Amino acid sequence: MSDKKAIFFNSKRPKKENDRFFINGLSKVSENQSNEDINNLLKLYYTIDEVKIDITFAIKINAVIEKHISKLIKQADIFFKMSNKNNCSVESIYSGMAGIALLFKFYASKTNNKHKTFEQSKQIIEKCLKILDSTSKRITYLTGKSGVYVTAASIYLESNDHANMKLMIDEIVGMLPLALDPKTSDEILYGRAGYLYSLMVLKNLGWNDVNSDDIIRQVVSAILDSGMSLCSKENIKTTPIMYEWHEKKYFGAAHGLLGILHCLLLMKNYLTQKELYDLIKPALDYLLTLQFKSGNLPSSLNNDKDRLVQWCHGAAGATQTFLLAYEILKDTKYLIAAEQFGDVIWERGLLIKGYGLCHGLSGNTYAFISLFKVTKKFKHLYRAAKFIDWCLTNDSKIKELNRSFSMFEGIAGNVYTLLDVQNPLQANFPGY
Ligand SMILES: [Zn+2]
3-state class of 90 per DSSP? Predict the structure, then answer.
């Protein structure tokens, strides 16, 4: 079958549905496509047998990567020339230079250290450490100090610099009292779940001090206690754990229940069976009761607008969390829900807000990649390829954001994704 409607999909001037997303001309066509049709269309992008990227597609992707990497190298040069005086900021993974360090390390690993980006990632992270505001109370992986320290730890480990790696571990562990402080929130961007994520990265780097498991367990307990305590205080009966950020009960990955459940599921070895089945599972089931008719999730409690289809709010973050829940809890309703979220993203996920990970096309592409990894259905890989192809073709059609170089809102996250989709079975959303 020919891919006629793809002409519309790849149109020079994509049609906007509203102020949030471009119309995906393929979304209606694909409902009637057989597996054979999909496999034939996919051959333009990947080989079916080995799931290897097509050489022509790879050349197209790598040309965009190189264009963006040269911009980011210039950005790094500007950063190196800046004064080392403390500027009262955290150069975070989310929007700061630590995110560029993370990308440069990843790029080096994929390209045999082309442009010497590994050395540059070390130089960037050491400058981030120098200018880090030591009084900052930000604790998380994405927006806080632990993300800078844990990225530095990974770079030191790869440099066989165990003494400096140990210093980074001490810094992260030193943030435990702040993480356990009752005034600290729980969500990924600014709260305990985001600190827990850094501890997980540290554990994956080989952190095995005698107290490491105890530290992780203390954070897990604090998150669960906080969720139960809000339910008890507000007499909430619909779910055993609930969270607030700025007095709003968010549901999405960045600020809400989904993201917190995601981090807890990532640390499943630190949960008791009772916690898993009496707290986490009912909270996941509660979220599924909130699905809109489209299949999407609201961004917060009592918000009945079905608008946001992105990683931070709505279907893209939800896809990844429910896939993880399916893998751990083996309940097929989670897999069905994840595929429904995927359909929503396919229809409304060509976002005009940019190509970033947080509320852009890259974050949405990862949802398809995750669906493919778990289900092995080529439909999902085809959708990921189409989104990527769209972003390569419509490079200048989207809004420039304030933080246009950054990992979560800009081109660094897009480059990370473009590198990762070339090996879809090994791909992983950074920071989730
Ligand atoms: Zn966002």
Answer: coil
The pLDDT tens digits of the residues spanning 2-46 come to 333 333 344 445 556 567 888 887 777 666 778 888 888 899 999
Say if CB 257 and CB 250 are below 8 A apart.
yes
pTM of the model: 0.94
Token pair 């929503």 in the structure block, residue: 344
DSSP 425: G
Sign of CA dihedral 193, 198, 200, 203: negative
Secondary structure element (H or E) that encloses residue 233, with its range: helix 212-233
d(C-alpha 365, C-alpha 363), whole Å = 5
How far is 407 from 105, CA to CA, in rounded Å? 13
Given phi > 0 = left and psi -120 to 50 = alpha, else beta, which region is 160?
A: left
C-alpha 407 to ligand 1 mean position (Å): 12
Residues whose CB is under 5 A from ligand 1 (ion)?
312, 358-359
CB distance 315 to 344 below 8 Å: yes
Q: How far is the CA of 104 from the centre of ligand 1 (A)?
A: 22
Distance CA 56, CA 149 (A): 39
Q: Report how far ligand 1's centroid is from the alpha carbon of 158 (Å).
A: 31
